[in-house]
Q: What sequence folds into this?
């Protein structure tokens, strides 16, 4: 199973948002496979029917809670009964967090990073100026 990131709740959603739209479904399916296989003690295919493979109500709720924690969202108790395969579950969850391929373009990570770097640079320069600080060798 994938470990919880520091800070816990929503760590997978952060990874999904950072991933390209083509990578998101695979990332989520991999997480779900690991979670469910860990509860079953066996590998599971994307189209295997979860209840037929041994997911009972307790395992379904445990899985739902793990998914809620990883995505930082509240989900229906009937989640694994409503979405009977990992394939359908992953597609549904991308819709829930509004990251489905058909709805959201891949983020422009480079533009966002450049913008954040520029903003941080100017904030740092302003803070250093207010402290009357000059770097070594610039006097």
A:
């Amino acid at each position: 199973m994938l470990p919880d990131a520091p800070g816990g709740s929503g760590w997978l959603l952060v990874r999904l948002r950072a991933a390209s739209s083509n990578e998101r479904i695979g990332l989520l399916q991999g997480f779900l496979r690991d979670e469910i296989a860990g509860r079953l003690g066996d590998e599971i295919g994307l189209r295997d029917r979860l209840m037929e493979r041994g997911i009972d109500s307790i395992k379904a709720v445990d899985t739902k809670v793990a998914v809620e924690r990883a995505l930082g969202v509240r989900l229906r108790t009937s989640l694994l009964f409503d979405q009977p395969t990992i394939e359908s579950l992953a597609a549904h969850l991308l819709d829930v967090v509004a990251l489905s391929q058909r709805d959201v373009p891949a983020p422009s990570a480079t533009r966002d990073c450049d913008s954040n770097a520029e903003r941080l640079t100017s904030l740092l320069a302003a803070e250093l100026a207010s402290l009357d600080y000059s770097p070594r060798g610039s006097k």
About this structure: The CA atoms of residues 110 and 116 lie 10 Å apart.
